[in-house]
């Protein structure tokens, strides 16, 4: 829906579409050429499971770019492109992220920047995509940049809906007998701010120490894996 009409959503996919329209480069070639180095660069930070799931998502996406290319655009209506392109792409990315992976290299870099330089993920992604939309306006037209911005907005909202429903944040409470080990690990590995709460079991009345923290959709899968690696019953 997006590529045949020269509209983009942001990130590496947008760069691939622009390169295809301007220089005739294959979508899948640009997509893999950018994503693979970024994935290898960030793999240590993101973990083995993230690497495997992201690799799988990228292979499936690449096959889609190859085998769907011969098909003509379903519609040329800008309204339908924005709505259906944004919704479908957002749902796809949301499912991948919810399963602990990623499709776009910009998201991987955003998490890496957040871990090493404390740059907020949303700020990094906004900056990257702002530059991309400026290039869309220069290479194509201001109108196409405006449509692409609308698509990007719908995509982000659909991702939030798939991951969190109507809630955009994610607060996490962890109950475990190994709360000190888990808390230290989360602060060390993910630089999360951890608060310890004191609770009481309703049935036996035993006192428990509860870990409370707030995270985002990109960090949550990694956080979950770390917690379960220390205490599978948490």
Automatic annotation (TrEMBL):
<feature type="transmembrane region" description="Helical">
    <location>
        <begin position="121"/>
        <end position="140"/>
    </location>
</feature>
<keyword id="KW-0812">Transmembrane</keyword>
<protein>
    <submittedName>
        <fullName>YitT family protein</fullName>
    </submittedName>
</protein>
<dbReference type="InterPro" id="IPR051461">
    <property type="entry name" value="UPF0750_membrane"/>
</dbReference>
<feature type="transmembrane region" description="Helical">
    <location>
        <begin position="25"/>
        <end position="43"/>
    </location>
</feature>
<keyword id="KW-1003">Cell membrane</keyword>
<keyword id="KW-1133">Transmembrane helix</keyword>
<feature type="transmembrane region" description="Helical">
    <location>
        <begin position="80"/>
        <end position="100"/>
    </location>
</feature>
<feature type="transmembrane region" description="Helical">
    <location>
        <begin position="50"/>
        <end position="68"/>
    </location>
</feature>
<dbReference type="InterPro" id="IPR003740">
    <property type="entry name" value="YitT"/>
</dbReference>
<dbReference type="GO" id="GO:0005886">
    <property type="term" value="C:plasma membrane"/>
</dbReference>
<dbReference type="Pfam" id="PF02588">
    <property type="entry name" value="YitT_membrane"/>
</dbReference>
<feature type="domain" description="DUF2179">
    <location>
        <begin position="193"/>
        <end position="234"/>
    </location>
</feature>
<dbReference type="InterPro" id="IPR015867">
    <property type="entry name" value="N-reg_PII/ATP_PRibTrfase_C"/>
</dbReference>
<dbReference type="Pfam" id="PF10035">
    <property type="entry name" value="DUF2179"/>
</dbReference>
<keyword id="KW-0472">Membrane</keyword>
<dbReference type="InterPro" id="IPR019264">
    <property type="entry name" value="DUF2179"/>
</dbReference>
